[in-house]
Amino acid sequence: MIRVLVVDDEALIRTGFQRILAAADGIEVVGAVSGGQALRAVREQRPDVVLLDIRMPDVDGLTVLGEIRRLREPPVVAMLTTFDMDEYVETALRSGAAGFLLKDTDPEALPLAVQNLARGGTVLSPKVTRTVVDGYLSAGGPEHPPKAVERLTCREREVLLLLAEGLSNAEIAARMHLSTGTVKDHVSAILTKLEVSGRVQAALLAQRAGLLAEGTG
């Protein structure tokens, strides 16, 4: 059972997400709270996944993200936003968010996104634009993406490609006929060589470097 906490300043959004997720098999909504209650709810309910509003009047979503990430065993956090061009998205990704979802995400896609997050995958709204990708990578990112990718071994490039497609470590292991531990080691090496702090950043860099186009060619 995947334990989910919804954090949003709007009661209508909280209720809507709670009802959609509660109706899905294998998902339990352990709380739906405003930003000021978020950290306490995370500590008390110990969710696996937190869906966190990026803009809230009572507390900044990025501040809450930073506090959650500092916990000893932090849950996976995906940011919620009403805008596909939210200027805070880049900061959230660099701060360790596992992705972001628009609040008008298709109800059928929401449980799938949560399941992917719980498996260690990444979630980026289909409406993410080239501007978000370019802006993230040009603002304090690593060197020119193709040059950064050249540091990787052939096997690491294969792992990065699957990671960029949103697969979890277990799914990558099954696809490549490797152990999950071996995949974890590859992912760790990839993040170090690319000078990024998380899977989403690595996925964005892979997209900028053209690896996704190569993989489908």
Automatic annotation (TrEMBL):
Keywords noted in UniProt: DNA-binding, Phosphoprotein, Transcription, Transcription regulation
Keyword hit for DNA-binding: yes
Origin superkingdom: Bacteria
HTH luxR-type domain ranges (all copies): 145-210
Span of domain Response regulatory: 3-118
PANTHER family per the UniProt record, alphabetical: TRANSCRIPTIONAL REGULATORY PROTEIN NARL-RELATED, TWO-COMPONENT RESPONSE REGULATOR
Protein name: Response regulator transcription factor
Lineage: Bacteria, Bacillati, Actinomycetota, Actinomycetes, Kitasatosporales
